[in-house]
Design goal:
Structural class: alpha/beta
Largest sheet: 5 strands, mixed
Number of strands: 9
Order of helices and strands: HEEEHEHHEHEEHEEH
Shape: rod-shaped
Distance between the termini: 88 Å
Strand content: 15-25%
Length: about 230
């Protein structure tokens, strides 16, 4: 047994993460005689099982030539993978590198191995990214996570519309020009009908809820902008 141990590379592999995908870390120790090499890393969206596989793959791939390996881990997922069971997309990579070596599974219940794996688990925990990455925006979302049409920072101006314009309170049109013919005519029409006229107020197009106001067909056109050099 002593000769068997002396001629083999001992690999201890540990992974940390939750049951659901989230930040996770992995660590591995390779030991041969008096030589020690520690590897570690992490991923933003992963599981503890996948991290244990990653630790083993990274350790095996770091070996320069085929050797005998005694593998220590408390991951049953890893043990099943080595037996050819499972569907993780890391399995082909694991099996490729495992085929180069003669691997023997070692029980992690051994006190020394258990202590070593506990130390590696702490290292794997420290290797986890700080938090989840920002979710990639959907096709109609901006970088602020809002629908582009509703984001004051990211929504684009309609053709012919100035960033700031005018409306009457209760009106349904957006005007580039406070003196727009149709805006003033609407006010006059209200007066002739004996109705109260609404105040003309300044407004930013970015603050207009989509569908709330329609650009005025008289003063909100590209031709009007060119004519008035806006």
């Amino acid at each position: 047994m002593a000769n068997d141990e002396a001629g083999a590379v001992r690999i201890y592999a540990a992974g940390k993460g939750g049951d659901d995908p989230g930040p996770g870390g992995w660590s591995a120790l390779l030991a041969y005689g008096d030589h020690r090499k520690t590897l570690s890393g992490g991923a933003a969206e992963t599981t503890a099982e996948r991290m244990a596989l990653t630790a083993t793959v990274e350790a095996l791939e770091s070996l320069k030539r085929p050797v005998r390996v005694h593998l220590y881990s408390d991951s049953e997922h890893l043990r099943a993978a080595l037996d050819g069971r499972g569907s993780d997309d890391l399995l082909p990579r694991l099996r490729t590198c495992a085929a180069r070596h003669r691997i023997t599974w070692r029980a992690a219940e051994d006190p020394a191995a258990h202590a070593q794996l506990a130390e590696l688990a702490d290292l794997a925990t420290a290797a986890r990214p700080a938090g989840r990455p920002a979710a990639p925006p959907e096709d109609d979302e901006c970088r602020h996570g809002m629908t582009k049409a509703y984001c004051a920072d990211c929504r684009q101006l309609d053709a012919g519309v100035l960033p700031t314009g005018y409306r009457t309170r209760g009106g349904s049109a957006y005007h580039n020009d406070a003196d727009c013919y149709w805006l003033r005519r609407g006010q006059q029409r209200q007066e002739r009908m004996g109705r109260d006229t609404h105040e003309i107020v300044r407004i930013a197009w970015a603050s207009v809820i989509p569908g709330e106001l329609e650009p005025c067909e008289h003063c909100c056109t590209t031709e009007w902008l060119k004519r008035h050099r806006r």
